Amino acid sequence: MSRRIGAVAIVIDDRQKAASQVNEILSKYGNIIIGRMGVPRREDNMGVISLLVEGDTDEIGAITGELGSLEKVNVKSALTSKEVED
């Protein structure tokens, strides 16, 4: 299957409730994450995480699907149309 590079934006509306679940999922898919930046907004109990990912569409869809199924978590992704080589 072809591999692509993409970006995933994650907004956590309730850090206390969802942060541990989000980190568990990110660890599970650590093999496709090539970069991560997280910014906590402690005063609002929110957090924003941006990911750079490289994987096939099934892998990227799986991580975004799992994250998006969490309560108080919003996820958006964008993938390049160009295939990359291993």
UniProtKB/TrEMBL annotation:
One Pfam family here: TM1266-like
SUPFAM superfamilies: ACT-like
Name listed for the protein in its UniProt record: Putative iron-only hydrogenase system regulator
Species name: Halarsenatibacter silvermanii
